[in-house]
Amino acid sequence: MHRKIIHIDMDAFYASVEQRDFPEYRGKPIVVGGPPQGRGVVATASYEARKFGVRSAMPSKKALELCPEALFVFPRFDVYKEVSAKIREIFRRYTDIIEPLSLDEAYLDVTEDKKGIGSALEIAGEIRQAIKEELQLTASAGVSVNKFVAKIASDIQKPDGLTFIGPSRIEAFMEQLPVEKFFGVGKVTAGKMKQMGLHTGGDLKKLSEEELVRHFGKTGRFYYKIVRGIDEREVQPSREIKSISIEDTFARDLAEPADLLRELDRQAEKLSGRLEKRMLKGKTLTLKLKFTDFKQVTRSRSLPEPFCDALTIRKVGADLLAGADLQGKAIRLLGLGISNFNQPDAARPVKRAANQLDLFL
User: Fold this and answer.
1) N-terminal to C-terminal alpha carbon distance within the chain
2) Which cofactors (predicted)?
3) Facing residues of 105 across strands?
């Protein structure tokens, strides 16, 4: 029996919430993120801004160059979290097998749905309609028999689209898919593939599994299966938290030890608060530094007993900073993270949006 998988992806989520809540933003090119005067980063952009080439993770300065009329809006993550929770409530009317990927994106397994509807396509339609009527937002959905194809399908008719790719269509669909759309294929890997004459899934399909592994490592096995429509990954309702971190990119590079220690102090307090909120304790602290030239170093230290307070985090962090041998180099980014959890409470859903939050702290 085929599984019934839905991938829901909210349309320009942060920007759409802003346009919903503030009528003066509607129909305007909105950029949610840090200000262009500093080192702000685009969290998301409305579709009016995307027409100019503005994309997520782009420096705000670049976004302003591409779209001089853009309105920059500082993110309201508390509001986005509240809206996201309401979206999840809608999901739970149909299934409890939900795998959140971020505040605005999730997989749902509706092989056996709570309402006994039976049709994943119908369920996806009802979910989209509920989101539109109850929250005044739009979502796009992809429906298929596995996660990979459902995710790709949700992007085909964005915004406000619904796409179904059934079992009989999957293999032909995968053959025409550009290689850069495949899981794990970034710019470097895509460039390597194209140098090898591999431009589509059909090109990848010509290679044996052994050849794919030789050229692309373990991920080659995934490529071999997925171009044949095989994706056995299950929708995971929860994931184990492996680390919690704080990192900040500074408005100006810091070189003075006193300035760096002051930032370290602040981060230690925040990190301690996050650990306390999630009732977690970890034994390993990692310091992350990025220099003006974008070179990056990390230093870690493990203790026999878990870190449980800001003072210990600050002291060990300062020791790691002192041992990093900065040689007077200016620091662009500083971060602290705790890992090596060994308590049952560590198995909690991951909130990936925390990574996005860090861009604006």
Assistant:
1) 47
2) Mg(2+)
3) 9, 102
The CA-atom distances, in angstroms, between 318 and each of 169, 261, 298 are 57, 7, 13
Q: Which is the catalytic residue, given 105, 126, 209, 263?
A: 105
User: In order of start, what are the domains of the chain with their CATH numbers?
Assistant: 169-226 (1.10.150.20), 243-360 (3.30.1490.100)
Question: 10 Å Cβ neighbour count for 92?
Answer: 12
Sequence-ordered strand ranges (E) for 25-172:
30-33, 42-45, 71-73, 98-102, 105-109, 139-144, 162-164
Amino acid at 339: S
Annotated binding site: which residue ranges? 9, 104
Average pLDDT over every residue of 304-326: 86
Task: Examine the residue annotation and report whether 105 is marked as an active-site residue of this protein.
Answer: yes
How many whole angstroms separate alpha carbon 286 and alpha carbon 16? 36
pLDDT of res. 54: 95
Beta-strand ranges (E) seen in the chain are 5-10, 30-33, 42-45, 71-73, 98-102, 105-109, 139-144, 162-164, 243-254, 282-291, 296-307, 331-341
pLDDT-based confidence at residue 310 (cuts at 50, 70, 90):
confident
Binding-site residues for Mg(2+), in ranges, read 9, 104
